[in-house]
Amino acid sequence: MTNSEADEHFMQRALAIAVAAQKDGEPPFGALIVDERGLIVAEASDEVAQGRDLTLHAEVTAVRRACQRLGTQLTGSTLYTTVEPCPMCFTAAWLAHVSRIVYGATMEAVFETTDGEQRELRVPASVLNALAPQPLILNGGVLALQCLRPFARNLPTGAT
Fold it and tell me: Which positions are catalytic?
């Protein structure tokens, strides 16, 4: 399996997690951590509504779960996330030494699709990465339209 095939494969899994979370009343974010052997070591969705905790983003929870399993050095691992990570999520991955972040839709696209209803700091991951003393490998836009689609369902009637 090539890198792009693997990225699409794991993004499909992250998207399935996001859609399932949306059905449970959570925002449609899904994330997983894949180790250097290509094994999923942790996965998560947003749990902000259920947990009544705005820090329970999918990416942070996936990193937390992976660290609980493997320790705090996730070198060689990849974080797959349906939406570009916010500053909090990017920092969690960076602190845990995640090597790659692969994301679907940009936060800007989500903001535009939801007419600003999805409240996030819109700092691009590329900007955060440029500020990091040890940058990660970023790959954005993987299945971007599919990852954006669940947010379009949240729009009021008549919205595009």
Answer: 59
